[in-house]
Amino acid sequence: MTEQTKLSVLCSLFTWTQRSKSAAKKRAKFRKFLDAFCTDHNFFPAVRLLLPNLDRERGSYGLKESVLATSLIDALGISRDSPDALRLLNWRKGGAATGPTAGNFALVASEVLQRRQGTASGGLTIRELNELLDRLASAENRAEKILVLSTLIQKTNAQEMKWIIMIILKDLKLGISEKSIFHEFHPDAEDLFNVTCDLKLVCEKLRDRNQRHKRQDIEVGKAVRPQLAKRVANATEAWKKGDPLAPLLFNIVVEGLTGLMRTAISKNMFSSYQVGSQKEDVNILQYADDTLFFGAVTTDNVRVLKSILRCFEMVSGLKINYAKSHCGCIGKSEGWCRDAAQFLNYSQLDIPFSYLGIPVGTSSKSWSVWQPIIRKFEAKLAKWKQRCLSMGGRITLINSGLTALPIYLLSFFRIPKKVVHKIVSIQRNFLWGGGIEANKIPWVNWDTVCLPKNKGGLGIKDLIKFNEALLGKWGWELVNNQNQLWARILLSKYGGWNALLFGRNSGDLSHWWKDLETVFQQQDSNSINNNLRWKVGNGVKIRFWKDKWRDDDLTLQDKYPTLYQMSTQQNSPINLMGHFVEDRWDWKINWRRNFFDHQIDMVAAFMAEIDDVHIHRSSMDILTWRDDPSGSYSTKSVYNLLKDAGNIVTEDSASKIIWNLKIPPRAIAFSWRLFQNRLPTKANLRRRMSAMSCSLAPKLGVYDHCLCNFLFCISVHLLHGKDVVVECKFDGDRIQIHKNGTEIHFFSRQVRMNFIDHSEYAHAMSEIIIQNVLVDRCILDGEMLVWDTSLKPKAARDGLDSDRQERHEILCKIVRPVKGRLEILVPNAGINSHISSGEPCWSFIAHNVDEVERFFKETIENRDEGIVLKDHSSKWEPSDRSGKWLKLKPEYIQAGSDLDVLIIGGYYGSGRRGGEVAQFLVGLAERPSPNTHPKQFISFCRVGTGLSDDELDAVVTKLKPYFRKYEYPKKRPPSFYQVTNHSKERPDVWVDSPEKSIILSITSDIRTIESEVFSAPYSLRFPRIDRVRYDKAWYECLDVQSFIELVHSSNGTTQRDTEYGSKQDSKPKRSKSSTRGEKKNLSIVPSHLIQTDVSSIKGGSLIFSNMMFCILKNLVSYYLIKLSDEVFEEMSNAREVLLAKANSPFNYMKAGS
């Protein structure tokens, strides 16, 4: 029985799932739990605890971390000044008070409870837990909640209480998605939940996993997950990927090109290129959207090819991209090749060239072939050089990244030794803590480093052995795929498998084939050949004497050398060593002479051994690989064989134990060096150098990390016959309105995990919906907006301050009648038919990219959230993000310039960043006097994203000695920081002195916002860190006056002009391509913050002469503009002041009507 299952069992499942790193094992464990403990098919009591965020049967607990902390303190009956109470209240903050669990409230609470609860389980069942949680959710006051928490504490232990707290917070952190849980529960569970949002209904309807459920349609009145828009920067590319039929249709059409070539060849109109001694015909190859033609170098072939391409264009409607097409000729003059290319409208192909990353027409020994690999290594290391990687991190990076870089090229060519030495040098220097060229002490021999982990090494790939293992697969594929075109070409030109094993490196062979012969012939007598076995079919491919096709490890030549010398068929395949007599195979072996009497027994044993073999007329011979269970060639197994060949190193039990320990990689790396006695102890250092000096420390270099800022590119057209609708994306709350006659329901996505029907909206909105939505049953999916009655645009969501009656009157004025169907609701007479004069166009069908770009610019200037592009013919699907809807928002577009700001405070993180500063409060400087440093810094914004973990750790480590905890309200902020002390601004720690701080270069959404939380007049939307400016001094940060000048001088954008850029940033200017258009200046300042344009106003008198006016920004915009105009009429040299210091020498009075 599910409800009688002990809570301890469920907690064990949670603990095991959280610790397991295998997603497959997690899913299997969940399935096993359901099969073992839910035998009555009553899944809901357990599943609602596994997915607490989807359980709508139980209301909101009203307990987030801060409230839950105080409730637990009262439930435990401890003083709020006690150490444990302070740990709960300050659970985010690290240090000795909170310990290593800081940032994870459930773990902090578990440690506090562990000292007050027993270790034994209280025997609480799933049913009892659900009843207590129901009481907790329905509790009407805080006292009732504390009573329920006290009961839970009495009936559980600390481990169980930890998971109960995580259920209350609705975040189990199991590392398994709800999609995976739904799939293991039932294949149709996710689809059913998407259209019902009812977890209980899903558990009741899908009791039998093996019985499929008929797809359920959307029901009006039941919450449904909304369709979602996919983020894009290029709509055309998104549509290409989003159309599943596009690749198939393209392949079908392009097949016509092959048909035209086939017809031309059958009528002797086109001469194919013939390869090798067997004259293998090659005429056309196709890969993806590339087509390669091969033919004899004749004028007739060029003319026929031109006709084929022209005919294909006319019939298919596809166009050949002649700008990317090339024509190359071998054996003809330069003039003939140029004329042929010009006739085909191609460009002339230069030899050598590269195709699919493989150089063609050049020697694989050339340094130019391998130089891109070296550059990739160096570029990869350049990104990691300044990051604080432990040795364990460097080992992981080498194994996962650096070794994987050259695999593609290593699969084709034999790597030269000079390239191996260069790559190994880079790997070795990086492993031991140096850079690309910086040499460090190689504490362990590289051959030992490349050994497997169980033999005392680090498991780093030996490039030479790995290269040979990769090349060995060519021979394997050549034998098993002889009927394919590429294999027939190699057989015709080089001779195939036998040539690999016994061929001679003659001068007329290609470098590529010579390398393959070298690899196979040097390994023929050992590793590779010893693990090949033939499975006999018709005997065509197998050499009777020289191949291994018996059960033992010897060929017949090695086992019976005397008989081999007497045979006249030493190189013959099995099928020529006999014949079929009806259905029985009869051996016919030819000998040079008769046998002596003492050889008769040997011949008899030989014949008895081969008589056991069955030859099959219709089966093919199969080459198998002995060291792989599947019998197929495995690069991994061949590499291990090559490493073991001639290597007498046995398994190291100590290394095997070390690598199996459940400890961090850095600790494993330290243990490995410890067992190798290769730690930098004084004795080891003394043996390796004569003197010890500071030169052992790594040299820190300064690297400019260039990031490209891309402007958006939206291109929309009827690529697949689709009408593309472009709509304004409003900045509101997603809401669904379900209308079923006169019954109205409201479901907000803001609480999508609970799917509560917001009945409080009914009074103001239900009657409006009934009167204006003319269909009886429908679902309206849209945004709930705040409306500004004075300016008529949408206002910010936090600007809602009118009473319900006023909101009701607004709805009556702005709602328009609509008719339509369930999937798409459109106006009665067209999409924009109800737009009144002066109202903006919110939706239209785009005909070209210019319309989309212009509309996007308008939405930004109107302070809207962005735009949405929709396939007008697509069906509305719940929870779908497949690309049918595409969204483009300003924060997806790189801002025009980076801003250099100073770190003045920090905020503790949660989760894996718990107990450490994870976000920063940054500030702008107050412009100092000439030849002085800034003395005041103004809070600007809060930023935490953009840095890797290692980069963030480096910044925090550097600043940690200068962090001072902010104990509000006991202590005041440092005097040199100008802040608002707003609750959202207030940091956990201050940097005690600006001189000790670090400059960050940040970027953001292209729009700024009026600052209410921070002291600066403007702040940024979605700021993120671009890089850490270690190369700049603390006083070189941006000052607030320059920032305002920057914003206003560029019409509200953050694009720096030449003069300003030269003052603020020492980075070299990026070259601008002449083909790029002008940068678009999109307004990023609210319209009511931009200085009033008074250029058209004529002065009336001089009564306000020589006066300064500060027009306050909290006036309604209409009155602000009117007041500015009236003041300017009566003034000659007054000016509008947007930023006023607290100690400015003027007084003002506020007047208004």
TrEMBL record:
ATP-dependent DNA ligase family profile domain span: 770-926
Keyword Zinc: no
Record-linked CDD domains: Adenylation_DNA_ligase_IV, OBF_DNA_ligase_IV
Gene Ontology CC terms, in alphabetical order: DNA ligase IV complex
GO molecular function, one term: ATP binding
Xref: Pfam families: DNA_ligase_A_C, DNA_ligase_A_M, DNA_ligase_A_N, RVT_1, zf-RVT
Any one Gene Ontology BP term: double-strand break repair via nonhomologous end joining
Region ranges (Disordered): 1053-1079
Keyword Magnesium part of the UniProt annotation: yes
Bias (Basic and acidic residues): 1056-1068
Keywords from the UniProt entry: ATP-binding, DNA damage, DNA repair, Ligase, Magnesium, Metal-binding, Nucleotide-binding, Nucleus
Family: Belongs to the ATP-dependent DNA ligase family.
Protein name: DNA ligase 4 isoform G
